[in-house]
Design a protein that fits this description.
single chain, alpha+beta, seven-stranded mixed beta sheet, 56 helices, 18% strand
């Protein structure tokens, strides 16, 4: 009894006795889902002691995996599932999988070396490593054979793993519990290999004979003829690609079976473990159930084998095939001349038969596909043959009508068929070199080789329409089959061609008929020897159709049926909407020595063989499976409803328990004696690897060559020199104390060399650029960085904190973020390589995460949600998806409160329900569910835009990192946060376009004014700059997004700190929290309840609103006396919105500090603390905001004082999407855009001269960079030896013509109107050609170019307001039904005419206007007339109308089609009124004039001349925008004031 218990114990396994050694996290980019922290947490919940990471071809996630496992008390195992092949440089070789686990430091370095090799040398779609590299770097590693796509699959792979690698490393063979046919079969192969080589098994989680017929996309093929990449039809009727076709010999002990069904036999044999798709049948309820995959050896007589219903659109084309090109099929037969084709007077092409055997016969090149040809093709397949040039058709004498069809068809071309009669047969013979080739190539020749038509490799599936295929089968069946009406039976096929039989079987399947072949064997009559080899015997394949399916086939063939004779028919099969089920009748073992074949199919792993379906740890939790499918759809741009989207066809790839592993193996029917020891062996392997961890390496910094003597003394001297250069006086005590303190901290932390490396780099940048950024990030809080020239903002002057940058508790190196001109970045990185060694410098990887907004958009795209709706919700997302949901709920509750307050409203509940139904998270729960799961998931790798690392040793030796190529740049595989762990110095060097713009503007200013502008010395209090800012001069200004613009418009900016406030507050967080509105209210004179005096003192510059993190730190320091390091810690916790429990110890410290300082009572402490946390969570970094505000100030200063130079620089190097906006801005500033001029313009850069902007030559359509350089140089540039020389004026004729057309040779000529087509954007042509209507208005001023320019901008004062004759309404308007809006409204709303030539055009009528039939009289109308009334403008002065005349009751907002439909009415109004000015109110009106459907806020309070209508168009927000949100009020008011000013100036009112 004791021994029995002992034996049982060795088969008992729980989670303590098993380790997951094959796990993929988010860094397995193609298929892994789940973050390291999620895996570690789950492993702890399940009681696992160890957990391995083996991502595909990469180790990027290992450091985070190690950290997260340690947090949960899990011992991490580090590894990788590598892609391996014989030669990694061979791009045609398919890589296989090999799992590697790290045992020690040597193994880790070897793994990094192999990873570098895979990414830099072997990368082809995936990072691949070859056998040689694995053997070379096997020390310190344990190897496992990988998943079902194992390295052992090919013969050479088995030898490599089991012999070569096993001789020098520890190896194991993996078996997995996935209940998946390929996995089951592979596990059995693994058992055999394990026995053969004596290699132990380890448990991890993550075939037919050659003449088997496979259904492919184009037709049928024998499995032996299937090739990798072929498209096959799967068991569910979809198309999938063949990944691999396998061939092997039958094993000695292996059983091969043949299968028979009630409808027929399956030819040949199949291996015992091959799975078939099966079901059971309930005879009472007549239903199919229990669908499953079963191995052949497990089949029984109660099983039904599944034959999928093939979709009609797979087999039949939607369109008829109309003609066949005989030349493409037959070529030009001999004797037909060199070309072989002649053309008649009508352009018809014929074969040249003058010297051929078809002499005198007209054979068209394009053979029409008609009924006769299709039936003849069927007859040929049945009983035709080709012998030389002779085509013979034979049939029974009773079917002479078929011969008549053949005779009539070929006689029409001029042939004279030869007729032969013999006994009961009749034959027709046609001699033709063309048609003999046609039938041989299209349908084959010889009974065993016949098939349905293929034309140029395409067919028979999806080649002919259903009607055409019925004619082919009619010809075939009436020739070779049998139709027995009395028995309601048809023999649809009786052939020795297996392919043909299964092709016809597929056609029948598609029209709803299931029939499997009856196979009989007889001796080939051509072999007289009765003892002949069986290969000389023939199989005869018959397809019989009976019962009601006979009726289906008769209808398909258009043959009369005898339905009335069918009384009862017992079906020998079952069916549902997707499948036929054929009852198994017999299964027996056969003696077979032929090779066996199997196929691996992408995604589905199933295919249709002989007409039946056969079939062959990537996320944390089982419930993650659907989200992982969404992830796969995102990566491939697929829609959820797409049946062909790529997904795993097998399940349960989660972090399984030991019990789930056992259950999986038991379903595979593996003996426990096999898989239990294999599971337990994982613990042994884990223990061998558990002693290794990736230890943090010390950063050894190189010394810049420019630094001499004592390093600290050198840095100190730089500070002193910088003080005298910048401050220019004796040391002030505050500066001296701050400098000494910072230097002492820097020295004690060992950061001196780091500061010198950064200083040396910035020093090089300043020598090669006229501008350097004032800073980015918290480094601007350091006085040392300011004095040595690393940053450009005086921290003492602006109250910036060094502790926000470095505090006494910091251990890691600081991060000094550096911005340089983007055109200089390549040279700058090369300088680092030249200075510290080429192999010691590399870029940094970045892991592209699915952040909150992105994941919402990605998931919504999968579910095909309207993009406009998605965009609205996504824009509300600040830090997380959950934040957006919470905000939506909060807004809903506020709206409900407003509705509830109106007690008289009887539809309150309905309105609340309507609002609820429109909430994005309520309306689209699936999108939210998956977005929450996928948020933060890694979706790809890239190169960090700014990151670079420096090492004091070569990065290629595998000691610190692996290398990869990302975006044509060599980078280390770690991201920013991991680089320092690996002992690497990271630098953040960002290339900024703005700095390049300022650099080029500096050069132009120097060229035009001989002024060497020093941006760092520009005064930051220039009133003209702030005036321009407050007037909305935003185009081309750095960091001037729309949120920041909105802050400036509403609050005005008077100094650089207020500019900084706008940068800090112009973000979603402050805006959504109400903090921004409160700041603006207070700044504009609003009162607020004062708090503690110290708090008020700290926040006085921001009107008692906590705007900056430095303010938070100062409050903690000054109110509670907390040291700055502690204050910084609290600030970080607040900023990351951590768990409230993390705040508790700091709250106690704060309270004790307040009591000690005697600043607050207990009650005040609690109130103050809660309020502080609420507002401080949105605080921003003052050092960063101020630095970027200074840079923005530099751009505006340059634009204000040197507009031409700045605009030219921006148009050359600025952001491309802002170029059109800047061009408009240039015109509004009175700058002239001059087309390229020879001798003046540059090849690639805009030039500035006075108020003229000269386009570069590459701005001309069709002129590339090389040609532009040649034009600018005055001729063609070519090499002469090592020198470049210019050949004068050697332009090509087309270039010469272009230059002449744009007047490039005349420096004073204006651009003709017809030459505008040479440029992408609108240039001002000669105004006398381009603006005749404007010139007519200007009259005597039309000869003055400056006045024309001013008038185009709406700045020239005129008196254009006059009285008009009465407007006549087109009566047809009221009957208009050009678009769907007419069905939504009571009637079109007519315009309201005026006696004056001014118009207001709104968007569309509202509900009230629809009822009353008058525009702009509802709530929106009250708003606009009230605002215009402030400027003495009333309704009587304006012709009032709408862009769309009908109330969009359901549509809400008119779309483009509606505007286009209504545009005719509006154009007619404008022609009658002849306005001098139009107010286009709202985006619909804007779209009518500009074609732009977005950006009304940008256009608000702007004006432009419209030559088409001969008037000015002024743009403004629609008054309804105020009704929707009071935040739009100030912008609307600004737009109306601007319009009224223009009415007064231009109209003379």
């Amino acid at each position: 009894m004791l021994s029995l218990k002992k034996n049982w114990r060795k088969y008992i396994v729980d989670n303590r006795h098993f380790v997951h050694l094959h796990t993929h996290c988010e860094h397995s980019l193609l298929d892994g889902m789940g973050k390291p922290e999620q895996y570690a947490k789950r492993a702890k919940e399940l009681g696992y002691e160890y957990l391995a990471l083996t991502d595909h071809g990469d180790v990027a996630g290992t450091l985070k995996w190690q950290d997260e496992c340690k947090k949960e008390g899990i011992i991490p195992i580090i590894g990788m599932e590598a892609y391996v092949c014989q030669d990694a440089r061979d791009t045609k070789e398919k890589p296989r999988h090999l799992t590697m686990l790290v045992q020690n430091e040597t193994g880790w370095h070897n793994l990094l070396k192999m990873c570098s090799y895979a990414h830099l040398v072997g990368f082809h779609k995936r990072p691949r490593v070859d056998y040689e590299q694995v053997l070379k770097h096997s020390d310190g590693l344990i190897f496992m054979s990988g998943c079902v796509n194992s390295v052992m699959k090919p013969d050479h792979g088995e030898k490599f793993f089991c012999e070569d690698l096993a001789d020098q490393a520890e190896v194991y063979i993996e078996i997995m519990p996935h209940n998946h046919p390929l996995q089951i079969e592979w596990n059995l192969d693994c058992l055999e290999i394990s026995e053969d080589y004596g290699i132990p098994l380890v448990a991890t989680h993550d075939c037919f004979i050659g003449d088997t017929v496979i259904y492919t996309k184009d037709g049928t093929k024998l499995i032996r003829d299937i090739r990798n990449g072929d498209i096959v039809i799967t068991h569910n009727g979809n198309f999938q690609k063949i990944k691999r076709v396998g061939k092997r010999e039958v094993k000695k002990s292996e059983k091969i079976f043949s299968i028979k069904t009630t409808l027929g036999s399956l030819s040949g044999g199949v291996s015992e473990n091959h799975p078939y798709f099966t079901c059971k049948y309930n005879t009472i309820y007549k239903t199919m159930y229990d669908f499953k995959w079963k191995r052949v050896k497990d089949l029984d007589n109660t099983d039904y084998l599944i034959s999928p219903k093939i979709k009609r659109d797979i087999v039949f084309s939607k369109h008829d095939l109309t003609k066949i090109d005989l030349v493409s099929i037959c070529g030009i037969p001999c004797g037909m001349g060199k070309n072989g084709i002649v053309t008649d007077q009508f352009g018809n092409e014929y074969f040249n038969t003058t010297r051929s055997i078809e002499k005198g016969i007209n054979i068209p090149r394009y053979l029409p596909v008609n009924k006769s040809l299709l039936e003849i093709i069927g007859m040929y397949i049945a009983n035709g043959n080709v012998d030389g040039y002779n085509i013979g058709f034979s049939t029974h004498i009773d079917k002479k009508w078929q011969i008549d069809i053949i005779i009539d068809y070929f006689t029409s071309f001029g042939f004279s068929p030869y007729i032969v009669k013999k006994e009961n047969c009749i034959a027709a013979i046609i001699t033709s070199s063309v048609f003999s080739k046609f039938f041989c190539k299209v349908c084959g020749n010889g009974a065993r080789n016949k098939h349905l038509p293929y034309i140029n490799g395409v067919g028979p599936f999806n080649l002919f329409s259903e009607k055409q295929m019925s004619r082919i089968l009619f010809g075939y069946i009436t020739s070779d089959g049998r139709i027995i009406p009395k028995k309601s039976a048809i023999t649809a096929a009786c052939t020795t061609s297996k392919i043909l039989c299964y092709e016809i079987m597929a056609i029948l399947n598609a029209i709803g008929i299931i029939s499997l072949p009856m196979i009989t064997t007889h001796q080939d009559t051509t072999h007289k020897n009765p003892n002949a080899n069986p290969s000389q015997w023939k199989n005869l394949y018959s397809l019989n159709v009976t019962g009601y399916q006979y009726v289906i086939l008769c209808r398909f063939l258009e043959i009369e049926n005898t339905l009335s004779t069918i009384k009862c028919f017992s079906k020998r099969y079952i069916e549902n909407s997707l499948f036929f089920g054929v009852k198994l009748s017999k299964i027996q073992i056969v003696d077979l020595k032929e090779p066996l074949y199997n196929m691996e199919v992408e995604n589905d792993n199933s295919y249709i063989a002989n007409g039946l379906a056969v079939h062959n740890c990537h996320y944390v939790l089982p419930e993650d499976e659907e989200s992982q499918e969404v992830l796969l759809a995102i990566q491939r741009g697929a829609k959820w409803n797409d049946p062909n989207r790529w997904k795993f066809d097998f399940h349960n790839l989660h972090l399984a328990t030991a019990d789930e592993m056992i259950s999986g193996f038991s379903k595979q029917k593996l003996p426990r004696s096999i898989y239990i020891p294999a599971m337990k062996r994982t613990v042994e392997i884990a223990r061998k690897c558990s002693g290794f961890q990736i230890s943090k390496q010390e950063v050894h910094l190189p010394l810049p060559p420019s630094v001499t003597g004592d390093e600290f003394a050198f840095l100190e001297n730089l500070c002193v020199k910088g003080y005298y250069d910048k401050i220019g006086s004796l040391f002030e005590l505050e500066y001296e104390q701050r400098m000494d303190y910072e230097l002492s901290v820097i020295k004690s932390k060992g950061f001196v060399r780091y500061f010198l490396i950064v200083w040396d780099f910035i020093n090089w940048v300043k020598k090669h650029s006229s501008v350097y950024s004032p800073g980015r990030g918290s480094a601007a809080g350091s006085l040392v960085t300011y004095l040595v020239g690393i940053t450009g903002v005086d921290p003492i002057k602006y109250g910036l904190l060094f502790s926000r940058f470095i505090n006494e508790e910091r251990i890691d190196l600081p991060d000094i973020d550096m911005d340089i001109p983007d055109t200089l970045r390549g040279e700058a990185i090369q300088y680092l390589r030249d200075t510290y060694g080429n192999e010691n410098v590399a870029g940094i990887s970045t892991f592209l995460k699915m952040k909150a907004r992105l994941v919402i958009r990605d998931v919504a795209r999968v579910f095909d949600i309207d993009l406009k709706e998605v965009d609205t919700f996504a824009k509300s997302v600040d830090k997380s998806v959950q934040d957006a949901i919470d905000l939506e709920v909060e807004q809903y509750q506020k709206k409900c409160e407003e509705i509830d307050n109106n007690k008289r409203d009887k539809e309150r509940e309905k309105k609340k329900e309507d609002i609820k139904q429109q909430m994005f998270h309520y309306k689209h729960p699936d999108v939210i569910k998956h977005a929450l799961k996928l948020e933060g998931q890694c979706r790809g790798y890239s190169r960090h835009a700014a990151g670079a690392v420096i090492s004091n040793e070569s990065l290629s030796d595998g000691r610190q990192a692996y290398l990869a190529e990302r975006g044509n740049n060599i980078v280390v595989g770690w991201d920013m946060s991991d680089c320092e762990h690996a002992g690497l110095l990271k630098l953040d060097v960002l290339g900024l376009k703005t700095l390049t713009v300022l650099n080029y503007a500096h050069d132009l200013i120097k060229e035009n004014y001989n002024l060497d502008l020093d941006y760092s010395k520009i005064p930051l209090d220039d009133p003209k700059v702030y005036e321009a800012l407050n007037n909305g001069n935003f185009t081309g200004i750095f960091q001037m997004g729309w949120a920041i613009q909105d802050v400036i418009r509403k609050s005005k900016v008077n100094n650089i700190l207020e500019w900084s406030d706008a940068v800090a507050l112009g973000r979603p967080g402050p805006a959504n929290s109400g903090m921004l509105d409160e700041y603006i209210r207070r700044k504009n004179g609003g009162n607020w309840e004062k708090k503690h005096p110290i708090y008020e003192e700290v926040t006085k510059d921001t009107f008692s609103c906590i705007t900056y993190q430095e303010q938070v730190m100062n409050i903690f320091h000054k109110v509670a006396g907390l040291p700055y390091p502690i204050a910084d810690k609290i600030r970080k916790i607040i900023g990351k919105k951590r768990d409230a429990k993390e705040f508790e110890p700091y709250k106690d410290m704060f309270a004790k500090g307040c009591y000690k300082q005697r600043t607050m009572s207990e009650k005040e402490v609690n109130e103050f603390w809660e309020g502080l946390l609420e507002h401080a969570s949105y605080s921003f970094n003052l050092s960063h905001a101020l630095s970027y505000s200074v840079l923005g100030y530099w751009t505006l200063y340059t634009k204000v004082y040197y507009p031409t130079e700045y605009v030219a620089a921006f148009l050359t190097y600025g952001t491309e999407k802002h170029i059109p906006e800047m061009i408009k801005d240039a015109r509004s500033m009175g700058l002239q855009l001059i087309p390229p001029k020879i001798g003046i313009s540059d090849a690639l850069r805009w030039k500035a001269d006075g108020n003229k902007l000269y386009l570069p030559f590459n701005a001309i359509h069709g002129v590339g960079e090389k040609m532009a350089v040649e034009i600018a140089a005055g001729g063609r540039i070519r090499k002469k030896g090592k020198k470049l020389i210019t050949e004068e004026r050697s332009f090509t004729p087309s270039v010469q013509t272009t230059l002449e057309n744009i007047r490039a040779f005349d420096p004073h000529a204006k651009l003709p109107k017809e030459a505008l087509r040479y440029f992408d954007f609108e240039l001002l042509a000669d105004p006398r050609e381009a603006y005749p209507k404007l010139l007519k208005i200007l009259g005597r001023y039309s000869q003055n170019d400056d006045i024309i320019e001013s008038a185009l901008r709406g700045e020239f004062e005129l008196s254009l307001c006059v009285q008009q004759s009465k407007f006549k309404l087109n009566g047809e308007l009221l009957d208009c039904r050009k678009c769907g809006l007419r069905a939504e409204c009571a009637r079109p709303v007519s315009p309201s005419p005026s006696d004056h030539n001014m118009m207001i055009i709104a968007e569309a009528p509202g509900a009230y206007e629809d009822r009353q039939g008058v525009g702009l009289i509802g709530p929106a109308g009250k708003v606009i007339w009230s605002e215009l009334g402030k400027y003495d403008l009333d309704r009587t002065l304006f012709h009032v109308t709408n862009t769309c005349k009908c109330f969009p009751k359901k549509t809400k907002t008119p779309n483009k089609e509606h505007v286009e439909a209504c545009s005719g009415w509006l154009k007619e109004e404008i022609e009658q009124v002849k306005p001098f000015i139009i107010l286009a109110s709202g985006k619909t009106a804007m779209y009518f004039f500009t074609g732009e459907d977005k950006g009304i806020t940008k256009k608000n309070a702007t004006i432009e001349w419209n030559e088409n209508y001969g008037c000015y168009i002024c743009y403004c927000l629609h008054p309804a925008s105020i009704l929707h949100s009071n935040k739009n009020k100030s912008e609307f008011e600004r737009g109306i004031k601007f319009f009224s000013d223009k009415v007064q100036a231009i109209g003379g009112i």
